[in-house]
Amino acid sequence: MRWRLCWENELSLDDHIELAEFFRNTYGPTGIFHAKPFDGSKSWAGARPELRAIGYDSNGVAAHIGLLRRFIRIGAVDLLVGELGLYGVRPDLEGLWIAHSVRVMHPVLQELKVPFAFGAVRPALRHHIARFSRNGLATIMPGIRVRSTLPRALLDKPPTRTEDVVLIVLPIAQPISDWPSGTIIDRNGPEL
C-alpha cells in the first residue's frame, strides 16, 4: 500500500473522478442512498475535507480518510478538533485499512496541533474501530450523540439531524481527560 497525503487544492479533476468512483463502489453496497452524493466527479458527501490520506495498491484507490479542522460545541465548550471522516476501504480489503489510514493521518494531526481528533461511524462499524481503543490510540466515547446540519436543503426534512453514532476521540495535543463532558456534539455544519 502506498499512501498519498494531499491538501484538497492539490487534487486534479482526474483524482476527484477516481475518488468518486471509489466511494460509489465502497458505499453503494450499504445502500444506493449512501452512494448518491458521489455522482459524477464529486468526491465528498457533506463537508468537504481539507486534507486527505489516500491509499493506493495495484488496483487503484484502496483506502481513504479525510480531515477537516473545525470548531464543535460540547455543552458550553467550543473546541477545535480535527474531524476524521469519509472513511473508505475498497470492499475486497474491508476490515484491513481503517486503522492504517488513521495512523497515516496521526502525524499530520500532531503537526496541525489540534487538541483532539474525532470521528463518528455508524454502530454497524463498531467492530472496525474497536481496535483503536485496545491499542490506546483512541477512546470510544459511549452515549454521545452528534447533531449536524444537512448538506443540502430538503423541503420535507428538518435542517438538522441528531444521530446515535460510535464516537472515537484521539488525544493529539491534550490528554483525553481534557475532553469536555456532555452528551451532544454540535458540529454546526454537515458531517465530513
TrEMBL record:
Q: Which InterPro entries match?
A: NodA
* Domain of life per record: Bacteria
**Stored Pfam families:** NodA (PF02474)
Q: From the Swiss-Prot or TrEMBL record, give the protein name.
A: NodA family N-acyltransferase
Q: Which organism is it from?
A: Mesorhizobium argentiipisi
